[in-house]
């Protein structure tokens, strides 16, 4: 996926917002913005993906914040919120005529859950929404069929909170060899090995560091261990927008599960902003 001009101000706004939320003083915010703009001016905008812009945001944040995980508390709160209702959700999924389709839908519907501090999840309302919202691109039946036949499956993870629903999906799917890929280092609110272990993903999958240092996976930046699993897995599921941005031109078949949260992604997939998507890229 190529860079859309709208990606530049979007990432710039995100950089400033994150710095402000972390109490960074004006002078340091300007320094970070200056570094980001300098890096942007030197980028090959015609041949890079939007993920590379996200990588520049991460670089600017690191200069000001150091190795601090700016989203640590947000990630933990989102995961804890869903862990509280995990067993109830699992019970309700098991009661469906097709628990796997339900789990796939719910793993995408994590995008509509309010993770604000103090919020309580309405289980019944969440399930109703997850199961009733139509998918603008709907390859769920094909994905379900492939999972049921698969001996190995890789899920490339995305956000915390949503990752608890991915755990539920893997438990329902029961693929003999299941792998879950995490970011190589803290990147926005994406899941790293730390959060994966905290939510117990290691009980349902083999955890693997994708080597990604930006909010999305890219074939040309995979480490050797990850690439072997990625290449050999019967089914690969990519979660979220960032992974779509990096893997949309992948050399292998991938099932993309996401919500089109911005107009750029909506335009790329030819769906309205806010749409749920289960897209098989052959």
How many domains comprise the coordinates?
Answer: 2
Strand order of the largest sheet: 1-7-6-5-2-3-4
Oligomer state equals single chain
Q: Could you give me the name of the CATH homologous superfamily of the largest domain? A: Uncharacterised protein PF01937, DUF89, domain 3
> Strand content of the residues, in percent?
5-15%
The topology string of helices and strands comes to HHHHHHHEHEHEHEHEHEHE
Question: Low-confidence runs (pLDDT<50, min 5 residues)?
Answer: none
Characterization of this structure:
Helix 5 packs across helix 9, helix 6 crosses helix 7 and helix 6 packs antiparallel against helix 9. The chain is α/β, with parallel strands linked by helices and 282 residues long. Strands 1-7-6-5-2-3-4 form a seven-stranded mixed beta sheet, with helices on both faces. It has two domains: 59 residues; 210 residues, Uncharacterised protein PF01937, DUF89, domain 3 (Rossmann fold). The chain is globular. InterPro entries: ARMT-1-like_metal-bd_sf (IPR036075), ARMT1-like_metal-bd (IPR002791), PH1575-like (IPR014444). This is Damage-control phosphatase ARMT1-like metal-binding domain-containing protein. Pfam families: ARMT1-like_dom (PF01937).
